[in-house]
Design goal:
188 residues; alpha+beta; Peptide Deformylase; five-stranded antiparallel β-sheet; two-stranded parallel ribbon; 4 helices; 9 strands; globular
Length: 188
């Protein structure tokens, strides 16, 4: 089932998410719904807070950007309780967007090499070194699990320049091609 994507200003996007345990109710259905929502929204990743859940769950399918970033070919990941360790290497600045901040993209600096530890949908422990653009996608989505949006990583000057667009999202004056949920009116 396609779920609404929670937009900038909604408090759930600022929460630190809780760990997921093997007895999590209806996990398979939630994961299926997250993938369906991500695909319907033309995203390459989706974190549980973006659908209103306070759980450490991320789904990624980086295949749509594989032509430009070959390391993304065939990379579909279900990350439960992910942990990132930054490895040596340079940071690269690239443009990022987010389903929860529609209509905007900004340059964000991120490391290119990470060690990722997680459990998959069967709670099997996994570990992998992730590089390039795929590492950026993983970092972006895992930021959501700690209440961080990519716009928190841009300069104060850039944030001031996009303030009007952010206020439009906050005030429910933005359109999307996918179902959304705005911040509660009392917060707007």
């Amino acid at each position: 089932m396609k779920l609404p994507v929670y937009l900038y200003g909604h408090p759930v996007l600022r929460n630190k998410c809780k760990e997921v345990t093997p007895d999590y109710p209806d996990l398979k259905k939630l994961l299926d719904d997250m993938y369906e929502t991500m695909y319907a929204s033309d995203g390459v990743g989706l974190a549980a807070p973006q659908i209103g859940r306070n759980d450490r769950i991320v789904v990624i399918d980086a295949s749509p950007v594989a032509e430009q970033f070959p390391e993304c070919e065939g990379r579909k990941l279900t990350l439960i309780n992910p942990e990132i360790e930054v490895l040596d290497g340079d940071s690269i600045t690239r443009s990022e967007g987010c389903l929860s901040v529609p209509g905007l993209s900004e340059n964000v600096s991120r490391v290119e090499n990470i060690r990722l530890k997680w459990v998959d949908e069967n709670f099997t422990p996994r570990e992998e070194i992730i590089t390039g653009f795929l590492a950026r996608i993983v970092q972006h989505e895992c930021d959501h699990l700690d209440g961080t949006l990519y716009i928190d990583r841009i300069s104060p000057i850039r944030k001031q320049l996009i303030k009007g667009k952010l206020n439009s999202i906050l005030n429910g004056r933005t359109s999307c091609d996918y179902p959304v949920r705005y911040a509660p009116k009392k917060i707007r």
